[in-house]
Amino acid sequence: xxxxxxxxxxxxxxxxxxxxxxxxxxxxxxxxxxxxxxxxxxxxxxxxxxxxxxxxxxxxxxxxxxxxxxxxxxxxxxxxxxxxxxxxxxxxxxxxxxxxxxxxxxxxxxxxxxxxxxxxxxxxxxxxxxxxxxxxxxxxxxxxxxxxxxxxxxxxxxxxxxxxxxxxxxxxxxxxxxxxxxxxxxxx
Length: 188
Description:
This protein folds into two domains: 1-59; 70-187, L,D-transpeptidase catalytic domain-like (Beta Barrel), CATH 2.40.440. Helices cover 25% and strands 29% of the residues. It contains three helices and nine strands, in the order ααββββββββαβ. It has helices at residues 3-29, 33-42, 168-177, and strands spanning 74-78, 83-87, 93-98, 109-112, 115-121, 127-137, 140-147, 163-165, 183-187. Keywords: Signal.
């Protein structure tokens, strides 16, 4: 290759690399804060919001898995505590979170995830995502879901709804954990 052609190719390569670098920088600088926070969190241990200079500050202990919820890998839903646990095969809670119950609750007992939907409109008319259904009570399908707008209002007591609402973050965790057939244990 002649020297002049080699110089042109090198210059074009350098220009292309600079352009890609600038575009990458602009994309990361204009990304939503939530995405940038997720990137930061993915490279570090979970955030501890306590003041490290305050030796007395302690994070609250996670709620223990209800004793009467069986064994093995399962989802535990406590009607009274309005809380869910995602439990691994060894009985360790991988995650626990508060939920907003529906107006129709399943009786205590053991169920299985019967169907899932990425996104639909809930029985209350709200757009929802990560829907994990596990029971039917008097013609009302009961399952976990997250409102796309992030809301978790108390359901209208005058309507029969089966949507047990969780935050979008918890809904994603539920979706990843609750494959078809996953055991769901409802306790009082």
